[in-house]
Amino acid sequence: MTTIVAGEDAPRIKVSSYFLLFNIAMIGADVKRRNAHGDTCLHLVVFATSGSRHPTKRLVEILLKSGADANGQNTKGDTPLHIAAMTNDPDMIQLLLLYGANPSISTFDGILPIHIAANAG
């Protein structure tokens, strides 16, 4: 089983995750399903791969091409773009924007991704 690993040099995802995620998407898994906090797998993968030196952004592309919502909000109103801004990852932000992430969506507290990015440095 392939897992997301958090540790000293984390976040990272094993290369075999590409194959696993691609196959899950191909069999029609619900990429919009949410956990108790309203996070989709896109929220979680953006968090896990943002700032990574590994070529894991491809996982985000697979999810987006499989129907994941680039503008889906969790229970706090965070979109994947908010999460990418929190981790101060310009490459992830650019990728999400390329796939239609809307930078004008605010959290339920009225915070835009640009506000988060400015505070993150």
UniProtKB/TrEMBL annotation:
The keyword Repeat applies. Transmembrane segments: none annotated. PROSITE patterns: ANK_REP_REGION, ANK_REPEAT. It holds the Pfam family Ank_2. Keywords: ANK repeat, Repeat. It comes from the Eukaryota. ANK repeats lie at residues 37-75, 76-108. PANTHER family: ANKYRIN REPEAT CONTAINING, ANKYRIN REPEAT DOMAIN-CONTAINING PROTEIN 16. This is Uncharacterized protein. It comes from Strongylocentrotus purpuratus.
